[in-house]
UniProtKB/TrEMBL annotation:
SUPFAM superfamilies: Acetyl-CoA synthetase-like. This is Acetyl-coenzyme A synthetase. CoA binds at R199, R200, G201, K202, T318, S530. Gene3D superfamilies: 3.30.300.30, N-terminal domain of ligase-like. Residues 97-477 form the AMP-dependent synthetase/ligase domain. It comes from Streptacidiphilus pinicola. CDD domains: ACS (cd05966). The keyword Cell membrane does not apply. The modification N6-acetyllysine is found at K616. NCBIfam families: Ac_CoA_lig_AcsA (TIGR02188), PRK00174.1 (NF001208). The gene is acs.
Amino acid sequence: MRSVALSSNESLANLLKEERRFAPPAALAAAANVTADAYAEAKADRLAFWATQARRLNWAKEPTETLDWSNPPFAKWFADGELNVAYNCVDRHVEAGLGDRVAIHFEGEPGDSRTITYAQLKDEVSRAAHALQELGVAKGDRVAIYLPMIPEAVVAMLACARVGAPHSVVFGGFSADAVSSRIQDADAKLVITADGGYRRGKPTALKPAIDEALQSCPQVEHVLVVRRTGQETAWTEGRDVWWHEITERQSAEHTPEAHAAEHPLFILYTSGTTGKPKGILHTTGGYLTQASYTHHAVFDLKPETDVYWCTADIGWVTGHSYIVYGPLANGATQVMYEGTPDTPHQGRFWEIVQKYGVTILYTAPTAIRTFMKWGDDIPAKFDLTSLRVLGSVGEPINPEAWVWYRDHIGGGRTPIVDTWWQTETGAMMITPLPGVTETKPGSAQVPLPGIAATVVDDEGHEVPNGSGGYLVLTEPWPSMLRTVWGDDQRYLDTYWSRFKDRYFAGDGAKKDEDGDIWLLGRVDDVMLVSGHNISTTEVESALVSHPQVAEAAVVGATDATTGQAIVAFVILRGSATDSAELTAELRDHVAKVLGPIAKPKRILTVSELPKTRSGKIMRRLLRDVAENRAVGDVTTLADTTVMDLIQSKLPAAP
Ligand code: 6R9
């Protein structure tokens, strides 16, 4: 990782001024699940606070100890407690008489739908748990899951949790190579996949990638195959088993075994910028405590009346914590959607919100900026008045995109919770609370109750308000990663060696005059222009604040005079047309908003930006383009043709 020398407190830019403020709606605040008292309570006794939150769960054996930090940074939370995650997510709601409550409103991309109640989910999870055991999966064995966004993905994860077999979900868009290296690293014994899924209006096969991947994974004994599309599927006799055939004949009664709080729940691989993917390990009790608490607090979830929808894929941590574990532990009713936002039309999301009366929506800045680009008239055609809380996750949200989200999706009424967290943190860490915090567009603002985060300079000293530096977490938290699977040293090196006794998140951040935290992107992306550290996020936000710009990605390209020069790639809004006048205007606009130092040297208009499959902009590739290099590894790109498109549009570099 490139280390960024922070020369002074003005580092990482501190230029963008955002004056807009939005108070929580009075009615929401009056009935909010969590009030300002939670901060005081957690401050008075952080561990007692988390011990209280752990009681949201049903423990087979109540924990007597909260945190064991005797061997830092290897944490144990609630170590002597025992519980079953699947029991907490499903059975206990049925036992409480809520079996008829809808757990999942499934909406397939072709328009098929299924409604699954908690009672039905309990039966399905129980049958799947029996099936896993019949196939020889025992407690501690790893199971790889490679599925589209269908209810069986949730059932499979919960069945693994039930029998104590840690799952490793691999995003259904990944290649055979990526799947194979992850299966090998986790030494998985069983793979759960499907014949295919629907994507952009047509069935796409999944199983061929598994067949190819398994050529180098001899330890895999069985492949369990869900039938989703009905397409022709190659079959290996003795190894492959149809999901419906084996589950149909199982009992719907399955006794959940209590697992130790520190029993591994899942491994999830993060690609990172270099090297082989890291298998982030999460365990049982602390993870579920924080996933459940944050989902309850940050979305103000009222399980009796809310209809919740998180648009992430199950292959990412957001899908793990905020489609599966958090919402189901809380007995929520949620929407699950299989496909893309523009199939068969660009209003599909809003049609779904209207159809199910969605009240809480959780999505990513990349999606919001895409909706801005498509135009205000599209959401305007649908009834979105059911919405009452909107969430954002995955990247910094530009203030303009934030305000657009609030106005055009939230009808100017809804609070927006901009939630900062990572695969490694397991659950949300820094975010406003919808009934408490006066929000500021573009800022994740404050650590949650029970979470300790701050911003430090190069030497690890906390910076004063109004200054920038590195985001660190200063106390252990319940849903923290426990290690990198099979590689404790990498866990220490990556997260705990940059600053003594603090977790280094890898993100740049600043504290504003009120002490609120603004995330400024990965430190690897920070630009150094004429001796000033400038964050890509702030220049991008300045560009997006121009009415003609929908989306922007900014990189620093090597420059003989200034060290690095700012090069911006912008996507215009639907109505705007590209011209030399407009680019000149945009450069001046940035200079006006941020100061002349941040004025981009070049601005290129493009129709798409390179993004990872979870929607994060891959600036590394744009840097290659800006520096006239051959474009590097594109395997994690969602759409590899994007780079060709961008390059074909490029004028010869000056
Ligand atoms: C949950 C998730 C983690 C990285 C993180 C940061 C960026 C996520 C953000 C945000 C600014 C937010 N990130 N949420 N940046 N504001 N609200 O996305 O996990 O895929 O592991 O990515 O995403 O850079 O370090 P993951």
